[in-house]
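[job 0412] stage=fold_complex status=start
inputs:
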Amino acid sequence: MANLVEEIQNELRALRQTALNTVHRTHKAKMVDFGGWDMPVEYGGLIREHMAVRTGVGLFDVSHMGDIQLRGPGSLAAVQRLLMNDASKLETGQAHYSAMLYEDGTFVDDVVLHKLSENDFLIVINAGTREKDVQWIRRQIGAMPGVHINDFSDYYTQLAIQGPKAEATLQKLTSTNLSEIRNYWFKWGQVCGCHNVMIARTGYTGEDGFEIYIPSDAPTSSRVWGEVLAAGEEFGILPCGLGSRNTLRLESAMALYGHEISDEINVFEAGLGRYCKLDKGTDFVGSAALRKIEAEGGPKRKLVGLEMVERGIGRDGYAVCSPDGARIGVVTSGSPAPFVKKNIAMAYVPVSYSTLDTELAVEVRGALVKAKVVATPFYKKPKKTSDT
Amino acid sequence: MAYSAAYKYTKTHEWVCVEGLAGSVGITDYAQSSLGDIVFVELPKIGDKVQAGKNFGSVESVKAVSDLYAPVSGTVTEINEALNSAPETINADANLTWLYKFDVADAGELTSLATLLDASAYETFVSEETGH
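[job 0412] stage=fold_complex status=done
writing structure:
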């Protein structure tokens, strides 16, 4: 009996692996525990991986993300109740950014919602919050009529091909005309011989790119991984880990659950009001609280971008201070930014300190280091110039 | 990566090379490899008294910051200022990239060298720490 208990405990402690785990280890990736998953943080140089995505193309295994399908005649009503954005505006083949909220307007998770067809939606959720999210979804909409909730998270290997050369790379592996897929739209097509692969022009890098959803068996996953790397070779493709995924999304000022958004931060504080449709015609979980916050004059603190003015790196959790040293806020994510070549951070500060060029300081290991409020995103991808 | 037999090593992953009553200090190849791309080094100042086992500066990669501890007590005589503009030199060759040079506090300090790890003991220590 004691052995059995121990066995179960070991099982619970064991890190989850994606179908590409062996491949990552063959690439000699540095592996870390990310939300209970054994994931590659880098393959041999975070900065090189970051630059490959900004200037060429990079390949990420993001199979740890969860995939929840809502289908049935009641699915639109369920999605409208569950998520803050207005899903009635989506056309089949279109996706948008959205979030699940608690009753008080703070975040359960941020998601990308895809409309697969009428009465059929796919919600892509974060890895670290997967169990919590699934339970939340069942609790909020499980009793609504005509909606079936399916957790397909383990059915897909999700690959992100990101960078200005992502389209040229992936186009070699599919007959689907990728140039016809607009940003945040998707198509079904054949990729590397796999049928009915969802090819979405989405990503988390601030760069052009695609996310593809292929069968999650190890042989198919590693074959497609290898074929994408071979197709991108002429563009200097690199396999990229979670380290560069984080610096890329930070340069682009995209939120990360547990950092910029959490169960202690509401939609307006996070600056995500544009994805929150209080006027969509139906109430959703959190809408009442957000209306009240809006009526009371909006949030008291705001998420801002910071650039370190003096030498020093403000990191996650460091205190943000007024120039005279009073603690007024906290850094949610901070890092050297490999492409913009500055030390940047996102932080919550009182609204009165949130205007551009406000001088602040970050408490870096006991010392006040000057910083200033700057516009976000820190990096914006260049506009497409005709056909180059 | 082979660790130089001429150096001594700390469990906090610094190396020290002492010749006579002068020495130099760097971080080990294992340290640079665990940190990843190094972007920032905080060095002591010339004339600073460093104390064995005590913090003298820090090294930062994109992902993390790590404190540095002096292997041997002494007075800083020279710092590697090139690292301010090219900290990535440490990634390229941690074994040969010194952070500061120092004069050993007194000859008695040299006995403390015996408490540090030699190359093979350090290698064993690292392999135990990484579990392979």
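[job 0412] summary: The mean pLDDT of chain B is 93.
[job 0412] exit 0
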